Amino acid sequence: MARKRKFGTTDELPSGKVRARYRMPSGEQVTAGTFASQKLADEALDAIEVDIRRGEHWDGRKGKTKFSDFMSEYMELRSRSATPGELSNNRSYLRVHLLPAFGHLRMEQLDEELVDRWYSSMPPTETRRNVYAFLRRSMRFAVKWRYVRSSPCNVLDLANPNNPRPTFTIDDFRKVIERVPVEVRVNNAKSPTRVYYREAFELLFATHARLGEIVALNARDVDRKTGTITIDKQVTALGHTTDTKTGQHGSVSALSIGRQALDRLPKGIGAAPLLPGAKAARMPRLALQRAWRAAAIAARLEDFHLHDIRHVGLTLVASTGATEHDVATRARHANPISTRRYMHPDPGRDRSVAEAADRLLDGTGA
Fold first, then answer.
1. Could you give the CA distance from residue 318 to residue 282 in angstroms, rounded to a whole number?
2. What is the CATH classification number for the domain harbouring 28?
3. Are residues 50 and 130 in the same domain?
4. Of 208, 302, 202, which Cα lies nearest the Cα of 250?
C-alpha cells in the first residue's frame, strides 16, 4: 500500500525495497527509483522537492536516451539553420567518427574521461578539431535540453589558437605548381596520359573556388572569351553533385593565371566536365588531393594544404586595396567575419590614407 507524504509517495515492493514516486510540476507522475530503506526513499524525495522549488530539478529519464537518438533530434534542428555544406560535413562527422564511438551509449553514460580518451585516440588533424567542435556544440544543446547535467566536452589540450597555421605566399604556390606533373602513366600504359592537375590548381587560385566547386564545373559554366566562371554547385567527397558549401552562388572573373589555364583545357560543350580525369570523364577530387600533397612534399612545403590556395588568392586580392565587399563577392562568403581574415593591415596604404586626409585638411585637395 502506498504511503502518502507531503511531497510524493512511497510503497514497499515484494523484494523489500521501497519505491518512491512524485509528480512533476506538469502533474505527470514519475518514479524517483527504488531504495534499500524507507529512510533513503524519503531523503531522495526531500532532495527532489527542494530542487523543484529552486527550478534545478533533474529528470533522469532523458539521460537514458541513446546518443544516436539524441543526435537525430539535434540534426533535425541543424537542418533548419545550417548551410547545405555545413550539414553535409556534420552528417559525415556523425557517421564516420561519432556514431562508431558513442552511438551505442546512453546520454547519461557520456562523461569527460570518455570524450578525452576518444579525442586523444584520433590523429591530430584539422578533421579532429572540426569533429570535436561539432560534438561540443551538440552537447551544449544536450545540456540545454536536459539530456545531460553538464557537457562532457572539456578537452584541455586543444591546439593553441595563438599559434595559427603558417601563412603561405604566391611564391610558395609557384614552388608547388612547378612540381605538379602534366602527364602520368595510367595502369602501366606504354605511353603517358595528359592530366590537368596544374590547370585545376591554377583555377582554384584564380577563382578562389573550393575543391568540390572546381571539380563540379562544366563547359557551360565558363565564358572563355571573358574568363568569367559561374560557381553554383560542388561535387562532394562521396561523388554527389550538390549545392555549394555555403549555399552562395556567383560569377567571378578569373585572374590571368586562370584564364591561361582555361586556354590549355579541352574545349567541351554543355554539361561536359571542364576538368577531365585521366581515367574518368570528370576529374576526381581524390586525384587532385593526392597530386597536390605529393607536390607540396616535393617542394618541402608539407603544411601547404589544398585549401590554402584559396587563402593565398584572396589575400592577394585584398592587398590590392579591394573593399571588404569586393573580397566577399569573389569569395562568395555567407558570413562577413570570414572575409575579414584576408583584410590584413597594410602600413603603406595606411600612410597613403593619412596623406590624402592631410591634403584635405590643408585645402590642397585629395
1. 32
2. 3.30.160
3. no
4. 208
**Interval 223-244: pLDDT, tens:** 999 999 999 999 887 788 888 8
Total H helices, total E strands in the chain: 15, 11
| Contacts for 315 with CB less than 8 Å, ≥ 6 apart | 342, 344
Cβ contacts of 58 within 8 Å, gap of 6 or more: 51, 146, 149
Same domain flag for 82 and 13 = no
Domain end point (choices 18, 40, 57)? 57
What residue spans of 94-125 are helical by DSSP H?
99-102, 112-121
First to last CA, the chain: 94
Residue with cell 557520456: 110
pLDDT in tens, 97-138: 999 999 999 998 888 889 998 998 888 888 888 999 999 999
Which residues fall within 8 angstroms of residue 325, CB to CB, at 6 or more apart? none
Distance from C-alpha of 38 to C-alpha of 18, rounded to nearest angstrom? 6
Pairing of the two strands 183-184 and 29-35: unpaired
- Which of 21, 18, 24, 19 lies closest to 9, judged by CA? 21
Range of the domain at 86: 64-144
User: Do 78 and 226 sit in the same domain of this protein?
Assistant: no
**C-alpha–C-alpha distance, residues 142 and 353, integer Å:** 50
* One domain for residues 333 and 250: yes
Same domain, yes or no: 43 and 104 = no
Note if the pTM is more than 0.90: no
Name residue 235's amino acid: V
Instruction: Output phi, psi for 357, to 5 deg.
Output: -65, -40
CA distance 289 to 306: 7
Query: Using an 8 Å Cβ cutoff, are 10 and 3 in contact?
Result: yes
Residue 296 contacts residue 256 (beta carbons within 8 Å): no
